[in-house]
Amino acid sequence: MPLFEQVTIIGLGLIGGSLAAAVRSGGLAKKIVAGSRSSRTLERGLSLGLVDEGYQDLAQAVQGADLVFVSVPVSAMAATFSAIVPGLERHAIVTDGGSVKGSVIAAARAQLGAHFSRFVPGHPIAGKEKSGVDAADAALYQRHRVILTPVAETDPAATQAVRRLWTAVGADVLSMGPDEHDRVLAETSHLPHLLAFSLVDTLARQGDSTDIFRYAAGGFRDFTRIASSDPVMWHDIFTENQDAVLAAADLFAAGLARFRDAVARGDSDALLGIMTRANTARARFLAMNARTSYTQAQSATDEHHMKADQNAAQARNPEFIVQPGGQLTGQVRVAGDKSISHRSIMLGALADGVTEIEGFLEGEDALATLQAFRDMGVVIEGPHAGRVRVHGVGLHGLKAPARTLYMGNSGTSMRLLMGLLSGQAFASELTGDESLSRRPMERVAKPLREMGAAIGTTGNGTPPVSIRGGRTLKGIDYNMPVASAQVKSALLLAGLYAEGETRVTEPAPTRDHTERMLAGFGYPVQRDGASVTVRSGGRLTGCQLEVPADISSAAFFLVGAAIAEGSELLLPHVGINPTRTGVIDILRLMGADIRLENERDSGGEPVADLRIRSSGLKGITIPEELVPLAIDEFPAIFVAAACAEGDTILHGAEELRVKESDRIQVMADGLAALGVELETYPDGIRIRGVGQGRPAFTGGEIESHGDHRIAMSFAMAALRASGAIRIRNCANVATSFPGFAELAGRAGLSLQVQG
Ligand SMILES: O=C(O)C1=C[C@@H](OP(=O)(O)O)[C@@H](O)[C@H](O)C1
Ligand SMILES: C=C(OP(=O)(O)O)C(=O)O
Fold it and tell me: Which residues does UniProt mark as catalytic (predicted)?
C-alpha cells in the first residue's frame, strides 16, 4: 500500500537519492518526482530509475506532491523553501534532511508562511563519506536513526506521516527539541568531522607531508576516514551550527589539555584513567548499537533515546528454544561468583594500592558496579578475560560522580552502594532498570538513616535513591528484621565511615563475603555468633584475588544433571562457602548424588570441584534454616522438585517475592504452563513431582519476566519435558551468567538462542 500519491525530492544527492530509492523499492509512493537545479543530476536520477519525473523549476517539481523532502545543503534551505512555496499543494507536508535544525527551522518559518505548520524538521543520521546521486542506496536508512524536531506550531498529523515514512524505509525514529539536536550533533558528529579535517590538514601543511603519509597506517586511516567528506556540505554545517560547534570544540580543547598535561607530567593513573574510561564508554556505545539491555539504557542521553532503545531491545530480546530430552556430561567451568565480583571492585577501590582480580564475572551486574566506581574517578583496567586491576583510591579518595549512577538490574550494586555512599562527602543518585526500580530499598535506607545518613527513595520505598552525603554517621547496633546479606553489607560499608562501632546481628546466617573480604583486605572485623562489628579508622590494602566459580550459576547444572538420567558432570573450582551451599544440602536431602572433590582454600574462600550424577529424587519439606543459604537457587530447585517423587514443600521464603521478579509467582506460572501441579503460599510453594522414568513437564511457552534465574531454570526443565520449551525475554541471563547458552549446549542441552 503506497503511503503517498506523490513524493517530491528536492536535491538528489546521497540523502535525497537514497530516500527516492527506498521509497521506490518499498512501493511507498505512486509517483516520485525530483527537483534539482542541475539538469545532469536529474538525468542521472531518471536513468538510474530513481524518479519518474524531474524538473529544474522547483515550484513545478512540488506540484501535485503530498510529501516534499528537501535535502539541499543547509545554506541553500532558505532559497529552496522560497522557490517551492508557489507550487506547494495546500495539503502538502514538507520535511527536510538538514544536519542542523535551528537555522533550518528559522529559514522555514521565514519562507513557508502559512505552510510552516505543515513543515516537519528532520535529520536522517545516515551519511557516508561518498556523496552524489550515484551513491544512492535503497538500504541506507535501515537500522539508522532519524531524528525529528517538531516545534510548537508543527501539525502532529504531519509529524506522524513523516514518522511513518521513515519507519517504512527501516529507520528508528525518535524526536527531540531542535536545540538539543544541534548540541548533541555538534558533539557526536560535527566535532569528529572538524577533528578529522583538522588533523589531516595540520599534518599536510608540514613540509614533508608526502613522506608522513607514506608511513601512516590503520590508525590514521580510521581516524581520518571522514576527512574525505564533502567540504561544501561541511562548510555549511560548521557555519550554520556555529554556536554549538564552538561549545563542542571548547569542551574537546579542555579534554585535550587534560590529556596533554597527563603526558607532560608522566601521570600514569591519569593516563590510564582517561583511556580505560574511553575504552568502556566505546564498548558501551558499540553494545548499545547491538542493543543489549544494561548498556543501552545506561548510555541513553535522553528519554527519547531511551524509549526508542527499549522498544528496539524488547523487539529483539532473545528467546531460548530448548528441545526436550538429553543428558548433561563432561566438565563445565561456570561463570565467576557475582557476589564476590561486586565486592572485589568495591573493596579494591577503597583500598590503598592496586588490587589484581582474576576470574571476575563479566556479567552486566558486576559491570554496573565497576562502571559506578569508574564514574567516581577510580582507575580500573579491564576486564580482559576475567582479569581486572583496580587502582585503589583509599577510603576517602572517591570523587563525586558527574552523573546518576546506573545500577541496571543489580540489587546488590544498589544496596551495597547505598551504604558506602552514605559515608561520602558528596551527594549521589542511584537508578536502575524496570525490575530494580520495583525493588524495596527502605530495608537499607531506614537503618542508614538511624546512622545519620540523608537518603531519599520514592513514596513506595523504591529507586531512584538519592543520597545527600557530607553527613557525620554514627555507628549503631542493628538487629536485622530480614535475613539479608545486602542489608548487612550496606551497614558494614557505612560503618567504615561511622563514628564508633557498627554492629549488625542477623536473624539467620546469610552470605558472609563482605566480612571475609574486608578481613582479606586487612580491615579488622569482629565476628561473634550472629553479629558482625566494624569500627571506622582502619584501612584496606590492595591485594590479589581469585574469584571462584559461582555456586548460584553451578546450581542450574547441578539440577540439570540430577534430573536427566544418564548425566554426569564435573563443575570445577566452585565456591563452597558454607553460607552459600544450601542448594547442595537441599538437593542431597532430595537424594541427589553430589560429591565435593579436591576441597581447598582460594584467597579466604573455600572451593571444590563438584561432581554430580543423575539419581532418583524424592520430594521433601525444605528446612527453613536453609532458605537464606539457597536464596538465589530456588527457581532451579523448583524444577528439581517437579521431577522428584512426591511433594516438595517450601515455607519461610517470602524474600523470593522481591527479587528480580516475584520468583514464587513467576515460577508457579511457568511450572503450571508446563503441566506441573502446585499450590503457592505467601511465603512459599508446594510442588507435586512425578518421579523418575517419565517426563515431568509438557512442552510450552514460558515468560521469564526478564529474570535471569527463571530463564536458566526452565532451560534445564527441557531435559525432562515431553515437548520443546520456548522461554521469552532472556537478555538478562547476561546479568549473572554470560555464556550460559553456549556452556549448556556443550554439556548436552539442545538450546537454541533466537533473536
Ligand atoms: O549480598 C549479595 O551479594 C547477595 C545477597 C542476596 O540478596 P539479599 O540480601 O536481598 O537476600 C542474593 O539474593 C543476591 O543475589 C546477592
Ligand atoms: C537476587 C539476585 O541479585 P540482585 O539482588 O543483586 O539483583 C540474583 O542474582 O538472583
Answer: 632 (proton acceptor)
Q: Is 365 in the pocket of ligand 1 (CB under 6 A)?
A: no
Q: Are 529 and 715 in contact (CB under 8 A)?
A: no
- The stretch 25-49 carries a mean pLDDT of 96
pLDDT-derived band of residue 294, with 50, 70 and 90 as boundaries?
A: very low
Catalytic residue among 96, 433, 632, 707: 632
Longest CA–CA span in the chain (Å) reads 90
319-332+549-754 CATH: 3.65.10.10
Q: Per residue in 594-625, pLDDT tens? A: 999 999 998 889 999 999 999 999 999 999 99
What's the pTM value of the predicted model, to 2 decimals?
Answer: 0.78
Please, which pLDDT band fits residue 298 given cuts at 50, 70 and 90? very low
Q: Say how far apart CA 41 and CA 61 lie, in whole Å.
A: 14
Taking 3-state DSSP, the helix, strand and coil percentages for the chain, each rounded to the nearest 5, stand at: 45, 20, 35
Q: What ranges make up the beta strands (E) of 566-654?
A: 568-575, 593-602, 605-613, 645-650
Is 336 touching ligand 2 by the criterion CB < 6 Å? no
How far apart CA 533 and CA 526 sit, in angstroms, is: 5
What does the pLDDT average to over 303-317?
A: 48
Flag whether 413 is marked binding: no
For 318-336, write each residue's pLDDT tens digit: 999 999 999 999 999 999 9
* Superfamily (CATH H level) for 4-176: NAD(P)-binding Rossmann-like Domain (3.40.50.720)
The question of whether 632 is a catalytic residue gets the answer: yes
Ligand 2 atom closest to 409 (CA): 7
Residue of 731, 730, 736 whose CA lies nearest to 411: 736
For the chain, give the percent of residues with pLDDT over 70.
95
pLDDT digits (tens, 9 = 90+) for 397-419: 999 999 899 999 999 999 999 99
Confirm or deny that 474 is annotated as ligand binding.
Answer: no
d(CA 146, CA 148) in angstroms, rounded, equals 7
3-class secondary structure per residue, 736-748:
HCCCHHHHHHHHC
If you search the block for the grid coordinates 546469610, which residue do you land on?
A: 510
Q: What is the ipTM of this complex?
A: 0.98
Output Rg (C-alpha) for the chain, integer angstroms.
Answer: 30
Q: Which atom of ligand 2 is nearest to the CA of 413?
A: 6
Domains 319-332+549-754 and 338-546 share a fold: yes
* CA-based torsion, 297, 299, 303, 307: positive or negative: negative
The answer to whether 70 and 10 have CB atoms below 8 angstroms apart is yes
CATH superfamily of 338-546: Enolpyruvate transferase domain (3.65.10.10)
Cα separation, 558 vs 540, in Å, equals 36
Contact 666, 680 (CB under 8 A): no
Q: What is the number of the ligand 1 atom nearest to the C-alpha of 488?
A: 9
